[in-house]
Design brief:
It is a single chain. With 224 residues, the chain is α/β, with parallel strands linked by helices. The chain has a single domain, classed as 3-Layer(aba) Sandwich (Rossmann fold), CATH 3.40.50. It is 47% helix and 16% strand. The chain contains 8 helices and 8 strands; from the N terminus they run βαβαααβαβαβββαβα. Helix 4 packs parallel to helix 5 and helix 6 crosses helix 7. Bound molecules: adenosine monophosphate.
Amino acid sequence: MRLNVVLIGPPGSGKGTQAVRLAERYRIPHISTGDILRAAVRAKSALGEKVAATLASGGLVSDDLMTDLVRERLAAPDTARGFILDGFPRTVGQADALERIVSDAPLIIVLIDVASEEIVRRLSLRRVCASCGLTQSVADHGGDVDAPDQDPHGDPCPYCGGQLIRREDDNPATVRHRLATYATFAEPVIAYYRPRQTFGAVDGLQPLERVTAALRAHIDGVGS
Ligand code: AMP
């Protein structure tokens, strides 16, 4: 049976981390539109040049561009058994477009719920390893939101020893803009999906393992 999973949640809700775990568990690809766009910016591709300024500001890339990108990605053969979509749809326009793109099996939608004060704290502590790309949280010394992007005295990546850096759009000003953007656009998307039987919400404040278990319980419950 195909599993077409859409994860919704604010930046810093643990969506990406959970998506990786679910993708491994169900052996279907994790498709993060943010990752695709960041890779395009790094590669300085035509797409990257188009979206670089929007990503840096924390605003949203246009629905048309995002829809084309997702349509193309979901046509790849590795999605034959389904996918974990992370970061799309972010607007009702994108949700409508997704209905047209995916018609072979119902979407399973899960919201990871986290209050915004907790998000600001989490994002201030979030670092990405420059070598292995793993996202992780550095020690909480009171949530120093204005810490430098690269702390030369910070600990190295516990997995590969690489340098831990802050994602460019995790700086305080951009975080505030991203949260405001989420607050504006997410509610209508959640309202769009909430009446469906396949919609579920999990408490993202629980420990990581419990969030994964709750997500799996929802997916297994409606996907079988
Ligand atoms: P994320 O990694 O999901 O937080 O995405 C990082 C940035 O990529 C966002 O702040 C947006 O600028 C852009 N982005 C990612 N997905 C979308 C989308 N579905 N629609 C519009 N912009 C997006």
